[in-house]
Amino acid sequence: MGSVYLARHAPPGPRNVALKVLGDEMSINPDMVRRFQLEGECALDLKHANLVEVYETGNDEGPTTSRRSTSTGSISEN
Questions:
Q1: 3-state DSSP assignment of residue 21
Q2: Are 41 and 29 in contact (CB under 8 A)?
Q3: Residue 1: which of 28, 36, 30 has the closest Cα?
Q4: 2-70 sits in which CATH class?
Q5: 0.90 exceeded by the pTM?
Q6: Phi/psi at 47 (nearest 5 deg)?
Q7: pLDDT tens digits, one per residue of 31-70
Q8: Domain boundaries, the chain
Q9: Residue 64: its H or E element
Q10: Widest Cα–Cα separation across the chain
């Protein structure tokens, strides 16, 4: 559906995040854009020890979601 990048999120404090970006081929389909946005919006409200926290959703240069980065080790180690 898209790609995930390790990125730096500034506010409220600098931290690494996993930035999920909707792929170009999907971005031209309004239904896929809405599904991607809905996934991010729903995930904002989910809080559980076994889930990766979503910090925010956006649409600056295309639909994105930023999540807590778990780039090393398991989720329980981060």
A1: strand
A2: no
A3: 36
A4: alpha beta
A5: no
A6: -130, 115
A7: 999 999 999 999 999 999 888 889 889 888 888 888 888 7
A8: 2-70
A9: strand 64-68
A10: 38
Q: How many CA atoms lie within 13 A of 50 on its CB side?
A: 0
For residue 14, the one-letter residue type is: P
Look up residue 67 and give its amino acid: R
Residue 12 half-sphere exposure, CB side, CA atoms within 13 Å? 1
Which residue in the block uniquely carries the two structure tokens 């729903």?
Answer: 42
Residue type, 32: M
Question: Could you tell me whether strands 2-9 and 54-58 are parallel, antiparallel, or unpaired per DSSP bridges?
Answer: unpaired
The number of CA neighbours under 13 Å toward the Cβ of 60 is 8
The C-alpha R_g of the chain, in whole angstroms, comes to: 13
Residue 8, number of CB atoms within 10 A of its CB: 10
Separation of alpha carbons 51 and 19, rounded Å = 16
